[in-house]
Design brief:
Layout: H1 5-20, H2 29-44, E1 50-54, E2 63-69, E3 75-82, H3 101-115, H4 119-126, E4 130-132, H5 136-152, E5 158-164, H6 172-187, E6 191-197, E7 201-202, E8 212-214, E9 216-217, E10 219-228, H7 243-254, E11 263-264, E12 267-268, E13 273-279, E14 291-300, H8 305-327, E15 332-335, H9 336-340, H10 356-371, E16 377-382, E17 390-391, H11 395-405, E18 411-413, H12 422-425, H13 433-438, E19 456-458, E20 462-464, E21 472-474, H14 475-495
Parallel strand pairs: 3-5, 3-6, 6-19, 7-20, 8-18, 15-16
Antiparallel strand pairs: 1-2, 2-5, 4-21, 9-17, 10-14, 10-16, 11-12, 13-14, 20-21
Helix pairs in contact: 1-5, 1-14, 3-4, 5-14, 7-8, 11-14
Length: 497
């Protein structure tokens, strides 16, 4: 049914090195050109049904690309992943080699031998089993394994390969692809039985944690707090409320908060941590900061956004009670939904060059100013795109997948530990109405379709240190094992009743 293993492995390696050599940093012309470049490449390999899917406009308009290999059955497995990468400026003197995996590996190995700066990386590279390269691990080797498997497959199932842009910033590719996939399924007469995301897994140990199929993906929310204080001279601090101080109480309350660290069996979602904390002052003077802006990353398994926000409001009140006791001043704690209910809310025009959290900060500030609020107030909300937790619900399908990967030594876990495009393709839990009503830029700076709702898993390569100049891929697993695993899962799903 498939070509022999040495040929399959060589093909996976060939494709991976080719795709890695194409620049595709998020937001650049390279990313914008990648989809068409991939379509042309696949056409040369005999895939004529390339489908271009537009994502956005602008100076570097981006798109997704889908390619269908029709089988004798309408039963379809989707292989998907992102092709954009983070920047490679961190390579320093080796920047010119960042996309040449083989040459970069030689140069990095030589540097590490001389400097001794990272003993684990040195051992990895000297083993001959790891390859460097920006985007090779995250996640072009996964795409390559999917393409090699699709080329080799000769069974009954149909395979739809879908490569998407912009996973590294705002997931615009997957957000556009989710509804498009539903349309393609109908237009092409397919029955999508499983979506396999091909994203990479980081493993700092022996690789056993990377050689897994994940039967779901973690959810993520960006919890925010806008602190509107009462400015005063530093010589009379009790006359005001220092926004920076109130923010500090919030930071103390939320940092690594156990209640927002969710456990499922042996899998633990990381507790919240602050990603940004800054007051509104642009320079030195002797008045206290009037405003401050803080936001935290929170990760979920099964907890709903409403539950997360309820916990957040409770702990924000606890933090503010301490601030009230210290300052002797009244301080309100309200949600953004409560704030905007005070008047007809119209979002001011946003600067698209700013990130979503900054746009949310400016929108909250504008509304506070429009309402003429002078009373010290903490406004809790959300500041960016939510990622829904997803889980493969069909127990029979879970068993089918687990049995298919077992001969290759793969284990299974419930959740992909980092955010992924699975949140937009998979079976999501809970609704996002609380997020929608408490995100200032919802529906204006970004739109969010319902998750596609397909059974969705992740099987990808493993390695270490992605988004770092020591990003490296475990090549034997990516090129020799992974394509065979994908073929086994596709075959098992195609035969499932």
């Amino acid at each position: 049914m498939t070509r022999n293993s040495p040929e399959l492995s060589a093909r996976a390696r060939e494709i991976a090195l080719e795709l890695t050599s194409w620049p595709s940093v998020t937001g650049t012309q390279g990313e914008a050109a990648f989809a068409q470049r991939l379509q042309d490449y696949l056409r040369l390999k005999g895939f004529d049904e390339g489908i271009s899917l537009s994502v956005d406009a602008g100076p570097n308009p981006r798109g997704n690309i889908a390619v269908l290999k029709r089988g004798r059955s309408a039963r379809t497995v989707v292989l998907t992943g992102h092709f954009d990468t983070v920047s490679y400026d961190d390579y320093g003197a080796l920047t010119d080699l960042a996309l040449d995996a083989e040459a970069l590996t030689i140069s990095i190995t030589s540097r590490l031998r001389k400097s001794g700066e990272n003993k684990l990386a040195m051992r990895d590279f000297e083993s001959g089993e790891f390859l460097a390269g920006r985007g090779l691990l995250d996640m072009k080797a996964g795409l390559a394994a999917g393409l090699a498997a699709m080329e080799a497959y000769a069974g009954d199932a149909s395979i739809l390969f879908l490569a998407v842009c912009d996973e590294e910033e705002t997931s615009a590719g997957a957000r556009a692809a989710a509804p498009a996939l539903k349309s393609l399924e109908k237009e092409l007469g397919l029955e999508i039985k499983l979506v396999i995301n091909l994203d990479a897994i980081s493993d700092q140990g022996d690789g056993s944690s990377g050689r897994v199929v994940t039967l779901g993906s973690i959810g993520k929310l960006l919890l925010t707090a806008f602190v509107h204080g009462k400015q005063t001279h530093a010589g009379y601090p009790q006359d005001g409320v220092n926004a920076a101080y109130v923010a500090a109480e919030l930071l103390t309350e939320f940092e690594l908060l156990p209640l927002l660290s969710e456990r499922t069996g042996d899998e633990l979602a990381a507790p919240p941590t602050a990603l940004h904390a800054k007051d509104s002052k642009a320079g030195y003077n002797v008045t206290t900061p009037q405003q401050a802006w803080v936001y935290w990353n929170t990760l979920q398994h099964q907890r709903t956004a409403g539950e997360v926000f309820e916990i957040a409001m409770e702990h924000a009140r606890r933090a503010v009670e301490r601030a009230k006791a210290r300052t002797g001043q009244d301080i309100d704690v309200i949600s953004f939904a409560e704030l905007k209910s005070k008047q007809a809310y119209s979002l001011p025009k946003q600067d698209a060059s700013l990130n979503f959290p900054e746009q949310s900060r400016l929108a909250t500030r504008a509304l506070i100013e429009s309402l003429g609020i002078t009373r010290p107030t903490v406004v809790m909300g959300f500041g960016s795109i939510p990622y829904s937790a997803v889980s493969l619900r069909d127990e029979s399908l879970r068993a089918t997948v687990s049995e298919a990967v077992q001969p290759f030594g793969l284990g299974s876990v419930n959740y992909f530990a980092g955010i992924s495009d699975m949140s937009f393709f998979g079976e999501a839990s809970g609704d996002l109405s609380v997020v929608a009503s408490n995100t200032p830029i919802w529906g204006t700076s970004f739109t969010l379709a319902e998750p596609a709702g397909y059974p969705c898993i992740n099987i990808g390569p493993w390695g270490r240190d992605y988004h770092h100049w020591l990003e490296r891929l475990h090549a034997p697993y990516a090129f020799e094992t992974l394509p065979k695993v994908l073929l086994a899962v596709i075959d098992a799903v195609s035969k499932k009743g």
